[in-house]
Amino acid sequence: MVKAIVAPSILASDFADLGCQCKKMYANNADWLHVDVMDGHFVPNISLGMPIISSLRKAIPKEYNEKNENIKFFDCHMMVSEPEKWVAEIAKAGGDQYTFHYESTKDPVKLIELIKSHGLKAACAIKPGTDVDVLFDLGDKLDMALVMTVEPGFGGQSFMANMMPKVEKLREKFPQLNIQVDGGLGKGTIGHAATAGANVIVAGTSCFTASNPTELIQYFKDEVNK
Ligand code: DX5
Ligand code: ZN
Predict the structure, then answer these.
(1) For a FRET experiment, which of 67, 105, 133, 222 has its CA 20 to 30 Å from that of 213?
(2) ipTM over cut 0.85
């Protein structure tokens, strides 16, 4: 069985207090930090880039468990028009996983190879309007697939439950693959995602506004492991 992974999206944090808030999320038992990089072109918003990621990495150094997994994992969601261009820089800044959008590249296979050649895990995201079938040929090459549950670009949007058939199809074909959902995840929507087969849960607004984030993160994990 794939394991539950909870990845708070730092887009919802207070950027003036970023290092502190991110450390707290790990203390709250978050597994990864989800880092949303937006270029104002692929999506109609600009968020953060390399200087922030490398500063955050200095504040939160990589730390390995007995399985040699970095337990301070940075999951970089690249909402950019030229994903090939930033792979080396994300690796240098201290990222661990590089999620590109299927819609943003002409040659996803070549891009996956490039990402892996930089020592990063490779993941592919699809927007709500993109058919899940495009991931079927890539699944075996990927460390993770991301099914967007909102239009990428902004935090705080409503979860699109009608994306769940995509998750179900992917889970059926790839029982061991990390399948991530991103957008609108909270206590009221996690059930849909977990039942469909998602195991990597991104949550921005819900995590960063929770009165008890530790309890919320555990709730997400329990729903996935049910
Ligand atoms: C949207 C981003 C998400 C966003 C999720 O483009 O990819 O990661 O931060 O935020 P919430 O959890 O608030 O919907
Ligand atoms: Zn994201």
Answers:
(1) 67
(2) yes
